[in-house]
């Protein structure tokens, strides 16, 4: 399963819990009885946080710490190749100008399970560089900031097959046509 | 201005804002149909992207900003029990906003100029490559500058209203100066007066922010963000006007590298993201803090914490822009991680805000839910759904899959704006309507409005987001067919239609309650 699908599933689980909580909250608050007067500020201590609010803050803080650690750990391939496995065994240079990708060969042949560095250079505008599987799902992408900047990304393809390239950033009305079908062929056997 | 004049001013702002919401909705529906490869003969790519360029300006500045302005022009003097500082500035902001948005809309409609709101350098000035007309660049830049001038006129008026004594009471020129207001603002907005008091070892010093109602604290702290935003985006408008005017000179040479594209992008996103924090988060929080205790006749839960949270949100908002640049590999990695970590900080500030509002409601059991309170609860769900999606996409690792996909603009952008922010604005409209007109809107129609808009917004946003997870890009047309994304776009169209129906129900409710002639008379000259 692709990482974005796992993230989406976790997101939908959390959102479902939140929505159910709010519906239950709505139902419960229509009934019930308050335990404090109209001028009360709940269980808050003068000048400080109430017990429940403190617990909620600790919970949110823990989620933020765990979330950051998780998204900076080598669990997801995008960060793994950027932070932890940066050494590429081959480099592919792609130029972009006047709404066209200029590939070194078509298709670009890449061995499976090998770190490959894509170096993309734009000579005029801001573009995007996205690699898509044939089913339309995205493998990875980056922005292409024009010269003097050089845009680099290291990636390991773990599935053989053909891949398309598409600009992932709007650069003008010709943007939808910045698409190269079967631009990359990943060869070899899946582990 | 007396209270009656302020009511008319607010109503004028709100009515114009609603017209802009309707216009943005029509644009949205047309774009949605075009994305589904319908109306291909009517809208070519250039025309489609020109609609997409106008859409956020009409939706954000025309609808959200003008509605907020209308509400605040009434509420801030009402809460502080004093007049608006300048009637002229109030009407200047009204007309500048309308003129600016009309200029942007007309330019994109007539010339099909389409740099999009992102305005990434050098796309807006790439005359030869993109085929823009230099006159369109000048006109569009002028429109952007006018809008942001209107925004600045509003915020300076707000700052002066909050921090200056009433005009009649102070004849001292020192007290009236812009420098005085700026000093008061900086000291109060960032709690600097408290720091100075600590430095000077003044015992038992109470921060000035505690002298103002919590709603007003949210207003001036949110205004700091949106003022900075106006300087940056207005500055881009001036650059566009200048470059466009230069291109009109004989012998002008196109130079796309006159501005560094990466530094520009950093400054641009720093400024643009402040809308998200100032307008979308802090103003919303402030509105909840005002409406909920008022309706429930109860003190806001944890006021002191809430004031600190608003300050924390202001500080956090200045350091989050890098979450827009996580896919820019030349960007220093440390900045990207900073953007990620600070964005998680918004989970804390928004989480505590929601806690304070829900705790206030909980303490008031049994609650009789009126229309504004229902809208507040629905907008909280919008913030939860849209905000969580935003935090997920703002991580370096996950951004590789989500950046510029329909996830960003669907689950995050549109749910946050249409279910989170817009329902908060409608909550304020339902709450203020009796105060401004002396008549209350029908509750059953309000329920239908809420249900259609909230469910429609969530359905549309989630469908777009799911297409985004599959790889469907935002700002993209798929001329060769939508493939696996098609079914999601059908569902998104259903959601959008529900929202349109909800808005129609709201209009019927307003017209039934006050009559169309009353609305028209609002804009006629008064004796």
Mean pLDDT figure of chain B = 93
Which fold name is given in CATH as the topology of the domain at 89-187 in chain A?
A: Immunoglobulin-like
Question: Which band does the percent of strand residues of chain A land in?
Answer: 25-35%
Backbone CA Rg of chain B: 23 Å
CATH architecture of the domain at 89-187 in chain A: Sandwich
What order do the helices and strands of chain A follow? HHHEEEEEEEEE
Q: Tell me the number of strands of chain A.
A: 9
**Whole-Å distance between the termini of chain A?**
15 Å
Percent range of helical residues of chain B = over 70%
Q: Give the N-terminus to C-terminus distance of chain B in angstroms.
A: 14 Å
Which labels suit this protein?
heterodimer, A: 191 residues, alpha+beta, Immunoglobulin-like, four-stranded mixed sheet, 3 helices, B: 527 residues, mainly alpha
What does this structure look like?
The complex is a heterodimer of chains A (191) and B (527). By secondary structure, chain A is α+β, with helices and mostly antiparallel strands. Among the domains of chain A are: 54-86, no CATH class; 89-187, Sandwich (Immunoglobulin-like), CATH 2.60.40.420. In chain A, 30% of the residues lie in helices and 30% in strands. A 5-stranded mixed sheet of chain A has the order 3-9-8-5-6, with no helix packed on it. Chain A has a 4-stranded mixed sheet with strand order 2-1-4-7. The longest helix of chain A has 28 residues, at 3-30. In chain A, 32% of the residues are buried. Chain B is mostly helical and 527 residues long. In chain B, 74% of the residues lie in helices and 0% in strands. Chain B has helices at residues 3-35, 45-80, 87-111, 127-130, 134-163, 173-176, 178-189, 192-199, 214-247, 261-296, 303-317, 333-363, 371-393, 396-402, 406-437, 443-469, 486-514, 516-521. The chains are: A alpha+beta (191), B mainly alpha (527). Chains A and B meet through helix 1, helix 2, helix 3, strand 5 and strand 6 of A and helix 2, helix 10, helix 11, helix 12 and helix 13 of B.
């Amino acid at each position: 399963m692709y990482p974005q699908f796992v993230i989406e599933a976790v997101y939908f689980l959390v959102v479902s819990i939140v929505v159910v909580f709010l519906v239950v909250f709505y139902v419960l608050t229509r009934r019930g009885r308050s335990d404090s007067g109209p001028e009360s500020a709940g269980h808050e201590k003068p000048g400080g946080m109430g017990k429940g609010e403190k617990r909620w803050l600790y919970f949110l803080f823990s989620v933020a710490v765990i979330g950051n650690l998780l998204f900076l750990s080598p669990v997801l391939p995008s960060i793994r190749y950027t932070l932890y496995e940066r050494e590429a065994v081959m480099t592919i240079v792609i130029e972009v100008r006047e709404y066209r990708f200029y590939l070194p060969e078509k298709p670009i042949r890449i061995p499976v399970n090998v770190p490959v560095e894509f170096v993309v250079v734009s000579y005029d505008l801001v573009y995007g560089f996205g690699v898509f599987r044939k089913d339309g799902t995205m493998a990875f992408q980056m922005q292409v900031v024009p010269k003097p900047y050089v845009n680099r990304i290291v990636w390991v393809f773990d599935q053989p097959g053909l891949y398309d390239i598409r600009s992932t950033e709007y650069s003008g009305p010709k943007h939808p046509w910045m698409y190269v079908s079967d631009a990359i062929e990943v060869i070899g056997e899946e582990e | 201005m007396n209270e009656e004049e302020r009511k008319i001013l607010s109503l004028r702002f709100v009515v114009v804002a609603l017209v802009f919401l309707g216009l943005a909705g029509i644009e949205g529906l047309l774009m949605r149909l075009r994305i589904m490869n319908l109306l291909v003969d009517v809208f070519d790519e250039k025309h489609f992207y020109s609609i997409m360029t106008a859409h956020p300006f009409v939706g954000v500045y025309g609808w959200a900003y003008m509605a907020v302005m209308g509400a605040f022009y009434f509420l801030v003097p009402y809460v502080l029990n004093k007049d608006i500082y300048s009637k002229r500035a109030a009407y200047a902001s009204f007309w500048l906003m309308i003129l600016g948005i009309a200029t942007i809309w007309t330019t994109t409609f007539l010339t099909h100029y389409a740099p999009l709101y992102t305005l990434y350098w050098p796309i807006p000035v790439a005359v030869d490559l993109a085929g823009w007309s230099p006159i369109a660049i000048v006109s569009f830049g002028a429109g952007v500058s006018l809008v942001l001038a209107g925004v600045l006129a509003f915020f300076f008026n707000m700052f002066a209203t909050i921090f200056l004594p009433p005009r009649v009471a102070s004849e001292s020129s020192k007290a009236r100066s812009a420098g005085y207001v700026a000093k008061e603002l900086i000291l109060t907005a960032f709690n600097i007066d408290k720091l100075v008091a600590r430095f000077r070892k003044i015992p038992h010093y109470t921060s000035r922010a505690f002298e103002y109602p919590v709603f007003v604290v949210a207003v001036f702290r949110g205004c700091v963000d949106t003022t900075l935003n106006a300087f940056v985006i207005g500055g881009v408008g001036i650059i566009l006007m200048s470059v466009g005017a230069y291109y009109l000179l004989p012998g002008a040479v196109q130079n796309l590298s006159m501005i560094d594209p990466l530094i520009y992008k950093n400054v641009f996103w720093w400024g643009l993201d402040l809308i998200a924090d100032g307008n979308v988060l802090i103003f919303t929080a402030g509105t909840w803090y005002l409406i909920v205790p008022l309706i429930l006749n109860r003190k806001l839960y944890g006021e002191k914490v809430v004031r600190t949270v608003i300050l924390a949100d202001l500080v956090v908002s200045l350091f989050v822009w890098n979450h827009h640049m996580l896919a820019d590999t030349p960007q220093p990695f440390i900045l990207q991680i900073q953007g990620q970590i600070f964005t998680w900080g918004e989970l804390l500030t928004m989480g505590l805000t929601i806690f304070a509002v829900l705790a206030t409601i909980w303490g008031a059991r049994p609650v009789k839910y009126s229309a504004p309170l229902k809208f507040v609860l629905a907008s909280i769900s919008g913030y939860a759904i849209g905000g969580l999606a935003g935090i997920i996409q703002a991580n370096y690792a996950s951004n590789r899959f989500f950046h510029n996909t329909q996830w960003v603009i669907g689950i995050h952008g549109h749910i946050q704006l249409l279910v989170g922010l817009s329902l908060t604005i409608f909550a304020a409209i339902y709450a203020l309507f009796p105060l401004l007109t002396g008549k209350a809107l029908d509750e059953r129609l309000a329920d239908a409005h809420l249900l259609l808009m909230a469910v429609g917004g969530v359905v549309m946003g989630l469908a777009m987001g799911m297409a985004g997870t599959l790889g469907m890009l935002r700002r993209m047309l798929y001329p060769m067919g939508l493939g696996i994304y098609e079914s999601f776009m059908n569902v998104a169209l259903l959601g959008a239609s529900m929202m349109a129906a909800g808005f129609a129900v709201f209009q019927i409710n307003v017209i039934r309650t006050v009559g169309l002639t009353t609305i028209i008379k609002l804009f006629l000259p008064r004796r």
